[in-house]
Amino acid sequence: MNEGTQHQPASDSPDTASSGEPVVYGYCTWHCGYSADIRVINVDEQGSGPGGVQSACLPCREKYDLIPYSERP
What we know:
Blueprint: E1 7-8, E2 23-28, E3 33-36, E4 39-44, E5 52-56, H1 58-63
Antiparallel strand pairs: 1-2, 2-3, 4-5
C-alpha cells in the first residue's frame, strides 16, 4: 500500500478517539517530511500534465495558518 494513502484507526489516540476518523499518514510539503494527520492544502491543476498536490500536517497548518482544501468555501 502507498505510504501516502494508508489509513489506520487511532482509537487510542487522544486527538482522534472522539472523532472516530482514520489518521492519514503522508508527506508534509511545509516541513518536508512524513507525518500523521495530513490534509490537502493546495491542488495545482494543469491541462497538459499531472498537476500536483501540497499537503500539510497539523503542526504546520497551525504554524502557517493553512486552511485545508476541503474546508474552503
